[in-house]
Amino acid sequence: MTKNQDSIHIWGDDSTTVWIRRKGSGDGSKPAGLAQPIEGSGFKDGGWLGEDGIDLDLAVEVEKFKAYQGGVTVKNRVTSTERSFKFQFLQEDPLSTEVFWDHDGITDGDSTAPGTLARYDIPESVGYSEWEFLIDFVDAGHTKRLVCSASAGERGTVPHKNTEMTVLEVTFDLTGGAYVLTDDQAFVDAIPAGTP
Known about the structure:
Number of helices: 2
Order of helices and strands: EEEEHEEEEEH
Oligomer: single chain
Low-confidence stretches: none
Mean pLDDT: 94
Shape: globular
Structural class: mainly beta
């Protein structure tokens, strides 16, 4: 590997986008390459995100095996792998509240004046909810898209004070396979010759 400043990124340009849909919704299609999702696919733009960005986390538990002589570690075995990411929705809207609270959608909240008051019910117990993501990290014209499915896990506290923004923070645990598409030249140059 050589030193290459073009491979140093600060992701988070204004076109960075989290596309999200509930697993099994929409027509099931995913866009080709780095194109935006089409209407009907079910993917929705997650809107503005908190300034902390999107933290990707890989937690690996390792069992260390030691030799009798001197207690030297002679082998490691990975016993558990957890992949997750978290971010904060800044916008409080039907998508962010559905993901955060796991509610069943928006209904009319006023039978005396229909269409003037929206309602969503907060369940007594949050269930298992799985989502599909296209996360476009953008830096100076380069895009890295994480394509994955993940279940909504831990939720953060939702502040309602006049000294800080109200945010909806969710940690997502990856389920199944995931992959990255990127137009970063260092990766494009690494494609083996003759690959279709």
